[in-house]
Structures are given as C-alpha cells and as structure tokens.
TrEMBL record:
It comes from Microcystis aeruginosa (strain NIES-843 / IAM M-2473). PANTHER family: SLL1193 PROTEIN, TYPE IV METHYL-DIRECTED RESTRICTION ENZYME ECOKMCRA. Residues 22-66 form the HNH domain. Pfam families: HNH. It comes from the Bacteria. This is HNH domain-containing protein. One of its GO terms (molecular function) is nucleic acid binding.
Amino acid sequence: MARPYIPIEVERRVRVTARNRCGYCLSPQHLVMARLEIEHIIPLAKKGSNNESNLWLACPLYNRYKSDKTTGIDPETGETVLLFNPSTQIWSEHFRWAEDGIVIVGLTPIGRATVSVLHLSDDPDALVVRSYWVQAGWHPPND
C-alpha cells in the first residue's frame, strides 16, 4: 500500500517548526549527510495520520530504529512507557548530553526508553560522527 502523500507546504511547516533538526538527537540538517525525514510520531501502521501535529523531523537512522514503535522499556525500571514525542515534549526534560558531548543520557523513563529503542547512544556510526562534530566545535547543540 502506498504511503499517503504529505503536501510540500505541510513538510515545509514541519521543518520550520522542528527548526530543521532531528527531534531525537537535535542534529541540524546542515550537519547530517542525508535529508532529515518526516517522521510519524504515531506511525501510520498504528492508525497515525499525516496531520501536521503527528509529524516531526528525524535522522533517517533514528527513524528506521523507531519504525512503527510507540513504546519502549525503561532499562532502569523495566516499565513500558511511551517514547519521547518531540512535537509536544521538551528534550532537556528527558535527555542531556554526557560531558563528552557525544552520548545522549536519558533522564526519565521516557528518555531512557527512547535512548534504548532508537539506539541514540550506542550506534557506532552516530557516535563517531558526533565525536568529529565535537572536535570541530559544532556539537553538542546549545539548546
């Protein structure tokens, strides 16, 4: 089945609202080699929609890891929780950067489950790229 079309104007507004950066790792489009993808917070496979309120930007890598998932297990408590919603939740309330500026640390059950499910801090390629960005003074984001 073909995916429903997202109008160009809706995609443009999502990119502006998301400040043209990934909602999960905060990487800006100008540093990411591939185009940031429009991600369905509630996946179409789980009755999500193409409504603007259900769309955000994500690195292709994290969009693939997320796939059709909406929940994850907090590795600290074993509790099943909803994944982080970059459209409605504040990143700094659920995550922080480790002192090295490379690793994302989950602060809450939602943050820890999202780090685990999306492999935000254990994908080797992402960690190498972030380490180069740190060396260049481009990372981590200030906000």
